[in-house]
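Fold sample X.
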Amino acid sequence: MISLYVDGASAGNPGNSGIGVVILHNNQQQQLNKTIGRYTNHEAEFLAAIWGLEQCKEIESSVIRLFSDSQAVISAIEKRYAKKEPYAAYLQTILTLLDTYELVFCNWIPRDKNKKADQLARAAIVKSID
């Protein structure tokens, strides 16, 4: 089973943005982040989920647990619907990636339970400013 923690952050709304992911699998942990350019906070959250799921494609597992502190992302996934663009397009990409797993759990978690992914996303913003 893969546990994937994702977070996106923006310095401004929109503003310089970064994404961070923590991947747990077979008692190993990967911490990844990257600068993504100028986006709103919600866009960064969706893009973090996409990038995190893309990073998991090479890991052999039929089960994934996705954790995010973004209610917008988790709600869209649960409903399999997002009304506005670009969220609808982002959601379609997320659903396509999730559909490759036999079993999927998507959970909203409080921000304080997603600290590492948040720190990684914020660190990516700082890198973009330097």
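Fold sample Y, listed below.
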Amino acid sequence: MYTPGIAVRRGFGGAVVGGALLGLAAATIALPTAAAQPQCTAAALSSALGTVSAQTGQYLSSHPGANDAVTNAGGQGAGGEAAIRNYFVAHPQEWADLQRIAQPLRALRQQCQVDVAPADIARLYDAMAS
């Protein structure tokens, strides 16, 4: 049986997946071809994101104050960024620890001269999860 709602959701889902993949492809194409090091690929970026994300998760799990600050900031809208900033200004060692964790991603972004926004990555993961 044909249900228009299902067809619309499938079409929308396909458009989201296509858009996310195109966004990732555009980011990959934007990588300078002159700097064609093996690290300047979508796979390397994804791998760096995965490593940084996993280590950040482990760090936050072992630092409940930082975990709470970041978790609670998610529901604060525009004020969330200020809440996170205020927490880490008061806890500079935790900020330094997280900066060290993020170093591989920062180095890759500088080396490849590409900047993929977190929203781009979130759209990709949303598309893959649908």
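Sample Y note: The radius of gyration is 18 Å.
Also: The chain is about 80% helix and 0% strand.
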